């Protein structure tokens, strides 16, 4: 499992999306919150992969986040069913390109929203480990930005 920056994950997904135009209509997005209040966004494409982005909204326009790709032998029909449940919700996510601050990687569309996504972890062997690592990276980012300082 490799934890990457939001920009790196977005670029990885963009490249997969462009390489497989025949699968574009089959991509699914599922959003929710974890028990710590962080935003979770899962991106899934059959035969391409499943990515998780975990983040925190810094303001209405900026998500501070990190992500990972799950390396499962098979993303089965049960995961696809989970990805298609929930309330429809429009989404938009933009990130600077990992190699150029003059370019943005943008993902928009209609996804699904569920209050909790913990049941998705039942199908992914490394889910608990990735959750712990993603939260750890977000905590480090919060400290670097001075977001966890005590009020005086």
Structure notes:
It is a single chain. This protein is α+β, with helices and mostly antiparallel strands and about 150 residues long. It has one domain (about 5-145). About 25% of the residues lie in helices and about 40% in strands. The protein has a 7-stranded mixed sheet. The longest helix has 18 residues, at about 125-145. The model has no long low-confidence stretch (mean pLDDT about 85).
In DSSP terms (H or I, runs of 4 or more residues), the helix count works out at 3
**Mean pLDDT across every amino acid position:** 84
From the structure provided, what is the oligomeric state, counting identical versus distinct chains? single chain
| Termini gap | 39 Å
The overall number of domains is 1
Categorize the overall geometry: globular
Helix coverage percent: 25-40%
Residue stretches low in confidence (pLDDT < 50, at least 5 long) are none
Order of helices and strands: EHEEEEHEEH
- Give the strand line-up of the largest sheet: 1-5-4-3-2-7-6
- Percent of residues in beta strands? 35-45%
Radius of gyration: 15 Å
Extended strand count: 7
Described by strand count, sense and barrel closure, the largest sheet is: 7 strands, mixed
Question: Which structural class do you get from the secondary structure elements?
Answer: alpha+beta
Give the structure's gist in a few sentences:
This protein is of the alpha+beta class. It is built from 3 helices and 7 strands, in the order βαββββαββα.
List its salient traits.
alpha+beta, 152 residues, 3 helices
Secondary-structure blueprint:
Layout: E1 4-5, H1 6-19, E2 28-33, E3 39-45, E4 49-59, E5 62-70, H2 77-83, E6 87-97, E7 100-113, H3 127-144
Parallel strand pairs: 2-7
Antiparallel strand pairs: 1-5, 2-3, 3-4, 4-5, 6-7
């Amino acid at each position: 499992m490799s934890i990457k920056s939001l920009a790196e994950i977005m670029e990885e997904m963009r490249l997969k999306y462009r390489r497989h135009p025949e699968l574009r209509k089959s991509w699914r997005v599922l959003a929710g919150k974890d028990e710590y209040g962080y935003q979770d966004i899962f991106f899934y494409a059959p035969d391409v992969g499943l990515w998780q982005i975990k983040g925190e909204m810094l303001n209405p326009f900026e998500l501070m986040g990190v992500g990972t790709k799950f390396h499962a032998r098979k993303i089965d029909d049960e995961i696809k069913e989970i990805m298609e449940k929930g309330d429809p919700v429009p989404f938009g996510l933009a990130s600077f390109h990992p190699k150029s601050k003059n370019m943005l990687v943008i993902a928009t569309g209609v996804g699904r929203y569920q209050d909790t996504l913990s049941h998705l972890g039942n199908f992914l062997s490394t889910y608990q480990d990735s959750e712990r690592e993603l939260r750890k990276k977000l905590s480090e980012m919060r400290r670097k930005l001075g977001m966890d300082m005590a009020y005086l």
